[in-house]
Amino acid sequence: MATRSNAVGKLIFIDLVGSVVWFPIWWYTKGLQKVVGSFVRAIQYRSQSYALRIWIKNFFVPMYGQYDWTGRLISVFMRMVVLIGRLIALAIEALIYAVGVAAWIVAPALFLIVGVLNLLHGAVG
What we know:
The protein is 89% helix and 0% strand. It is mainly α.
C-alpha cells in the first residue's frame, strides 16, 4: 500500500508540479523556436507564392512581345506597380506574423499578471 501511495505521490509531483515548472522554460525555448521557425517558413512560402524573383527577373522584358518603346514603358510601369503591391502585401503579412510572435512572448506574463490582479481584486473587494 505504501509503495502505491508513493507511486501516486511521485506521479502527481513529477507530472503536475513538473509540468507547471517546465512550462515557462519550454514556452520561451523550444516553443518560441517552433513559432519563429513557423514564421520564417510562412514568409518564405508567401514570398514564393508572390513569385517575386520571377517578377524581378523579367522586369525589363516587354509584356506580350511588344518591343516598341510604348510597350516597354507600359510593361516596366505595370511590373513596377505589381512589384510594389506585392512587396507591400508581403511586408504587411510579415508585420502580422511578427505581432503574433510578440504575442507569443508576452502572453504568459500577461495572463499571470491578469490572474494575480483578479485574485487580489477578489480578495480585497
